[in-house]
Amino acid sequence: MRYFLEISYRGTNYHGFQFQKNANTIQQEIEKALAILSRNEIKITCSSRTDSGVHAIQNFAHFDFENPLPENLMYKMNCVLPRDICIKNIFPVTNDANARFSAVSRTYKYVISTIKDPFLSGLCYYHPVTLTIQWLNLASQELLSHTDFTSFSKTHSQSKTNICHIKNAEWKKEGNLFVFYIKADRFLWGMVRALAGTMILVGDGTKTVDDFKKIIDGKNRMLAGSSVPAEGLFLCEVEYPKEIFLK
Fold first, then answer.
1. What is the pTM assigned to this prediction?
2. The CATH number, out of the four listed (3.40.50.720, 3.20.20.80, 3.30.70.580, 3.40.50.300), of the domain defined by the range 2-102
3. Deepest of 43, 95, 218, 238, by most Cβ within 10 A of its Cβ?
C-alpha cells in the first residue's frame, strides 16, 4: 500500500531535502527513522526537493509498505527525528499517487525583514533597504501574464521546459516584514529566489516595472537580479486532486 507523509521542517541544518552521499539531508533523516521503526529499508519520494537551507511548512513524500504500519508510527517518528523535522500526518493514498507528479500546485513564500531581528535569524532575509510595496506588487502582477521563466532558472538545470503557470503572485506587508507569496503548477530550480531578488530591485527603485517585464521577455538569466539567500524561502502548501486520497 502507498502512504503519504506530511512533513514540516526548518532547513537551516540540512543540505536540502534530497539524499546526498556526503551531506545530511531531510530525506536521510526520515528514511533513517522509518528504517528504525519498521525494521525495513524504506525509500521516500518527495513533492518538492527543496534546496539547502530552505524551510517547509508543508511538504509531502510517499512510500510503499505492504505490512500494516507500526502502531503510533507518526508519534514514534517524531520521537526519533531531530527537533527541526516534524511528521504532521501519515495517510493512505491510491497506489498510483505520486507525491511529486500528482501535485497540481505548490505555494512558496519569501520573507524579507528590513530591520535586524535576532529572533528571525535563519528564517528571513535581512535587507535594510526601503522598499515600496506598490512597486513590488506591480512587478508581481506581471508574472501572471507570462509563462516562460527562463530568466529566473538556474543555468544547466535538468528541466525539459521552462514553462510555468503562475496562479497567484503578491507581496504583503506584515509588520516589519515584506512577504512574497507565489502559487504555480510547477517551479524551476532557483526560480522563487531569483524572482524575489529581481523584484527587490523594482521595490527599491533601482529598476522599473517595464525593466522587469523586459527581463522576463529576454529569457536570459544574466538579465535578472541576484538570487536572495535560501534562509527566507518557505514551501507553504502542496495541493493534490481529491481522487488520490482514500476515504
1. 0.95
2. 3.30.70.580
3. 238
